[in-house]
């Protein structure tokens, strides 16, 4: 079987020889579609893992044990709840209401990554730099 | 009837009854105005949003040999140094040197004065580059170093205009996108932007400047500051609804406070695509309940506060003074609003959620005796109108 996942490498984890270990220890075939690995920055890799179900599962758990974030939803958009001030500038620009008013009484904003289609419009419009994408510089 | 001194006595002894400007609405509805005026001492108001007319005076201390700075940059953002040797004023909307601005329209405006102010308050290192022509007593002509806010002798925020009493709602009736200080406005009235904390906003709760005046203590991004003057463009002469609340810009406040005591959560550099950089600030102002009329005015609610919807593709830039309609903040807080028969998506640049947080922090500080009220020593002007610029020859 084959599973497509997004691996996100925090800056300090970029040095891990993950692909080698997944091939050698878990007998997985790895197909990299898109990746950015930079020793000075957070990195990512969109990959297909092919092998037995158990090996894929074990390989994913191994990656997680190294501190690598395994993002199976494949969304690269990051909403920083600390940077967000809940002003609401993004609201008319988010086409799927992934950014939405969580509580109309306090006007507090939240982000639903299930609804996000990664149009990146929020990145262009947020005055506070609260939205970023691993796919966009 | 209460006096400032009586309220401060209650605050000092931990007996003051304090509510925020949202809570007070339902409280007065339940208790009645007279009983509530007896019981409640202070109503806290607040706002959080972009306030372009903000900045700070900085004193760097003297280098050896000394420099009489004539030009200087902090993280490549120009500061005004036409004052004493190592003093400078850093303004919120100053753009970083070499930023392409709107050369590649709409520009991103990633970094400027507001961002440097935020970095300083976060305690981060900032690069100072300074030039001079050199004098006998100040021979140094160039220096480059790194500073943090702790290295500065003073970092005093002095904002010529904050806390606009009310504000325009911006819309675009043209057939192409426009980029404004109220954000990206899509063509044919697809969206609009408002910018006020409405029922929580300081001057909307004191529409006739009965308690907020020169000398009033304010909570400025965590520091205890004060009102130093009417803000620039202050105009008590304005259109008002029957409850006395201005239905256009109107009053403003000049505020000052010690930047070393500020909390970076409430001081944020901002980038407005196609427009420029600025600073968003959080401000809280207590209103003493001196009598029932003052209390009554703090019970104003969003549905009773109206703002003009102005076309920023034509009427605003051409200063025609025309508006499409007036809408209230209760309707603006919904995700869509009807303007001239069309459903329009609503955005906001002011954060009600942060304003509410500030009103509650200020409330706690007053209840715990950490924040005392001060009686203004002069009222804000109520009868001086706002003048337009005259262009000679026109």
Characterization of this structure:
- The complex is a heterodimer of chains A (137) and B (394).
- Chain A is α+β, with helices and mostly antiparallel strands and 137 residues long.
- Chain A has two domains: 2-71, ACT domain (Alpha-Beta Plaits, 2-Layer Sandwich), CATH 3.30.70.260; 77-133, Alpha-Beta Plaits (2-Layer Sandwich), CATH 3.30.70.
- Chain A is 20% helix and 31% strand.
- Chain A contains three helices and eight strands.
- Chain A has helices at residues 18-26, 53-65, 121-125, and strands at residues 2-9, 29-36, 43-50, 69-71, 77-79, 99-103, 108-111, 131-133.
- A four-stranded antiparallel sheet of chain A has the order 2-3-1-4, covered by helices on one side.
- In chain A, α1 (18-26) packs antiparallel against α2 (53-65).
- Chain A is elongated, with a radius of gyration of 17 Å.
- In chain A, 30% of the residues are buried.
- In chain B, the strands form four sheets. In chain B, strands 1, 2, 3, 6, 9, 14, 15, 16, 17 and 18 form a ten-stranded mixed sheet that branches. In chain B, strands 20-19-10-13-22-21 form a six-stranded mixed sheet. Chain B has a four-stranded antiparallel sheet with strand order 5-4-7-8.
- Chain B starts with a helix and ends in a 27-residue tail after the last helix.
- Chain B is α+β, with helices and mostly antiparallel strands and 394 residues long.
- Chain B folds into two domains: 4-52 and 158-379, no CATH class; 61-152, no CATH class.
- Chain B has helices at 4-12, 23-31, 33-39, 113-122, 292-298, 329-332, 352-367, and strands at 18-20, 42-50, 55-59, 71-74, 77-79, 87-91, 126-131, 142-147, 154-162, 169-171, 178-180, 183-185, 191-194, 217-220, 223-230, 253-258, 267-272, 276-288, 306-311, 325-328, 336-339, 342-348.
- In chain B, β21 (336-339) and β22 (342-348) form a beta hairpin.
- The model of chain B has no long low-confidence stretch (mean pLDDT 97).
- In chain B, α2 crosses α3 (33-39).
- Helix content of chain B is 16%, strand content 31%.
- At the A-B interface, loops of A face β2, β17, β22 and α7 of B.
